[in-house]
Amino acid sequence: MNIGIMATGGIAKKMADTINLMDEVTLYAVASRSLEKANAFATEYGAEKAYGSYDELLSDSKVDLVYIATPHHTHKDLMLECINKGKNILCEKAFTINKKEAEEVFVAAKAKGVLVAEAIWTRYMPSLYLIKSLMTKIGTITSISANLGYKISQVERINDPKMGGGALLDLGVYPINFALMVHPEILSGISGLCVKAESGVDIKDSISLRFSDGVMATLFTDATTTTNRRGYIYGTEGFIEVENINCPEEIRLYDSSRVPQLLETYKITVKTGYEFELLSCKKAIEEGLLECPEMPHAETLRVMSLLDALRHAWNVKLAEEA
Ligand SMILES: NC(=O)c1ccc[n+]([C@@H]2O[C@H](COP(=O)([O-])OP(=O)(O)OC[C@H]3O[C@@H](n4cnc5c(N)ncnc54)[C@H](OP(=O)(O)O)[C@@H]3O)[C@@H](O)[C@H]2O)c1
Description:
The protein has about 325 residues and is α/β, with parallel strands linked by helices. The protein folds into 2 domains: about 1-120, NAD(P)-binding Rossmann-like Domain (Rossmann fold, 3-Layer(aba) Sandwich); about 125-270, Dihydrodipicolinate Reductase, domain 2 (2-Layer Sandwich). It has helices spanning about 10-20, 35-45, 55-60, 75-85, 100-110, 125-135, 155-160, 165-180, 275-285, 295-315, and strands spanning about 1-5, 25-30, 50, 65-70, 90, 115-120, 140-150, 185-195, 200-210, 215-220, 230-235, 240-245, 250-255, 260-265. The protein has an 8-stranded mixed sheet, with helices on one face. Strands 3-2-1-4-5-6 form a 6-stranded parallel sheet, sandwiched between helices. Strand 5 (about 90), helix 5 (about 100-110) and strand 6 form a beta-alpha-beta unit. The protein binds NADP nicotinamide-adenine-dinucleotide phosphate (NAP).
């Protein structure tokens, strides 16, 4: 399967490295707003084609999947352009700025019959199956906690509301997705607090989710600090500790003693972690599916509506909302 990468920034480079470690997919083309950057990227990562505009990439009939690696505020329009040209899409998170934009994309994709997948890589990782199997050993699930923080508050696209900035859309999506994927129940309550940057975007968020079965998730994100990135799933008979919810490295099972005892440790190995979303897209395209089972459109919309609700409560307006 030939991949065309749209953009040449940080995550585009990580994806190019990933593709080059895989046999199942090929780094065929790269497109940038600058031909110079596209040429440099193609030379460094070995892409056959380099385009100096995103549009040219979409006119290349050999591109089977477009990977969109641009800032959030550009995702909707770029996806609509891909759909218009009949291209399958893997688009970075945050999928769009809000739920309304995501719905517009899904309606257009369905009408055109192309695959659209959200590149929320943690959803596609096989470590989720290990976590789910360990969850059968800890009794009834009672609560969940997770955090993710990196020092990125000074990065332009994080600090600028016009570019869809803020901690929630960039980092907060990970603890939220962690809770929703390990415990896919209906939500009965959402609340949160944030601290804002001078630009008006949220920069530290504390989020509580209450599920209809009484399970509580307590989540936080911080764009000013590196946090321990751990996730916990607590049950009546023990708990599970996930080292690095951004790309699980180790998963530990504890009992429910007053001083919890470590029962088992599982090391997780991946190429980079981004390979799984590519494999899922490839399989979905081969099977004629328009969405990936690991992250169905309904689930992207569920996350987007949650993000909308939190930002509405905080009065954080982004991109065209601002
Ligand atoms: N899944 C993950 O682990 C992960 C990690 C990091 C980021 N991401 C996501 O990937 C996206 C990009 O993040 P990044 O860290 O790679 O950003 P970045 O380093 O700033 O790169 C973004 C690239 O997008 C292109 N672009 C198109 N329109 C742009 C605009 N108006 N302003 C700036 N750049 C524009 C540029 O490429 P050209 O100049 O070549 O056109 C730029 O190099 C974000 O949505 C982010 O949430 C995901």
